[in-house]
Amino acid sequence: MGRPTEVRVRVPASSANLGPGFDSLGLALSLHDEIEVSVDGHDDVRVEVVGEGAGQVPCDESHLVVSTMRTTWALLGEEPPAGLRMRCRNAIPHSRGLGSSASAAVAGAVAAAVLAGRDLELEQSALLQVTAGIEGHADNAAASLMGGFVVAWETAGNTADRFHAVRLDTHPDIHPVALVPQVESSTKMTRGLLPERVPLADAAFTGSRTALSVLAFTRQPDLLLAATEDRLHQGYRRPAYPESADLVDALRARGVPATISGAGPTVLALTSDARIPDDVDLAGFTTLVLPVDTQGAQVEIA
Predict the structure, then answer these.
(1) Residue 153 pairs with which residues in a beta bridge?
(2) What span, in angstroms and rounded, lies between the C-alpha atoms of 286 and 95?
(3) CB 146 within 8 A of CB 296
(4) Which pairs with CB-CB distance under 8 Å and at least 24 residues apart come from 241-247?
(5) Tens of pLDDT along 253-290?
(6) Cα dihedral 201/204/207/213 (nearest 10)
C-alpha cells in the first residue's frame, strides 16, 4: 500500500507552567486547531487559513505548519513530497498563552510523519524533538501531542534526544476555565522581564509547589490552590499583563486555583464546577470552559 496523499490532523490548545512549573508542566485543553494537508505533485505550496490568524499569518512556505513539516521530513530522513495544499481551521487564539504556535508545530510534525508512512507511536520522541525544538521547551508541545497533564524536561547538552515528557491523567474533578482577554502578549517580551537569578528561598518555594502540582493534578485536586503558587516568574511578568494578574489575585482570594496561562495574558482557573464566582469582575475577558483534552493530536487519513 502506498503512502497517504491526504491527511487531517486535530490538535488541542495547551496551558503551560500552571503556576510554578515554569517550562516543565503543561495541560491539554479542549480547544482545537485542525489542518487538512494533501500532496498533489505540483511544485508550489498553497495555504488557506480560516479563523484565528486569517489574514495575519503567511500563506506560503514560511507558514509554521509547512516549515515544521519540512523540518520533520529532514529529521526522519525523508524527501519532501512535491506540492502541498493545506487548509487550516484555527480556533486557538494567537499570542494569548494558549499554545497556538506549539499546536501548529505539532500539527505539522504529525502530518509530515503520516504522509511519510511512519507509525506515530514509534516516532513520538522524534516528533517531540522537532516541536519542542521550535519552542525551546517541551511543555506546550508535549501537551498538544500527548494530551492530558504532562511533565516535561530537557537533557543538558546538544543531544539528539534533548526533550522528554511523560503524560499523566488528570483528576476528573478538575474543570479548567480559560479567561481570555482581547490584548495579546509576546512570549519573547515576557521572558525578557525575568531575572537571570532569583533568591534561593523563592526557588525552593517554587520547587516544592511544582512537586506538589503533580499530586494535585492527578490525585488530590483539593491541593491545587497551594500547588499553583509561584514565586519564579509570574510576579516579574506582572507589568506585561496587570489586568490578568489582578484577576488571578481576585480568583485566588476566593479560593479558586488560578494562574497565568503560559506567557499570558490568558488566566486559567482550575475549578471544581466550571464556574467563576459571581462577584469576580470579568470585564474585558471572554470565558471559555475548556475540559482537559485527554487524546492529544488526532489523525484521520483521507
Answers:
(1) 164
(2) 15
(3) yes
(4) 241/181, 241/183, 241/185, 241/190, 241/265, 243/181, 243/183, 243/284, 244/179, 244/181, 247/179, 247/280, 247/281, 247/282, 247/285
(5) 999 999 999 999 999 999 999 999 999 999 999 999 99
(6) -80
Q: How is residue 43 written as a grid cell?
A: 511544485
User: What is the reported pTM?
Assistant: 0.94
d(CA 251, CA 236): 19
Region class of 18: left (phi > 0), else alpha (psi between -120 and 50), else beta? left
Q: How far apart are the first and last CA of the chain?
A: 14
In one-letter notation, the amino acid at residue 253 is: A
Sign of the dihedral through C-alpha 249, 250, 252, 257 = negative
Tell me the C-alpha to C-alpha distance, in Å, between residue 66 and each of 146, 182, 264.
21, 28, 26
Residue 154 grid cell: 530537557
Q: Is the pLDDT of residue 121 over 50?
A: yes
Question: Pairing relation of β-strands 258-260 and 149-154?
Answer: unpaired
Question: Which tens digits make up the pLDDT trace of 127-183?
Answer: 999 999 998 899 999 999 999 999 999 997 766 789 999 999 999 999 999 999 998
Geometric angle at alpha carbon 152, from 146 and 158, rounded to 5°: 115
- Please give the grid coordinates belonging to residue 22: 515554569
Contact 280, 179 (CB under 8 A): no
d(CA 228, CA 220): 13
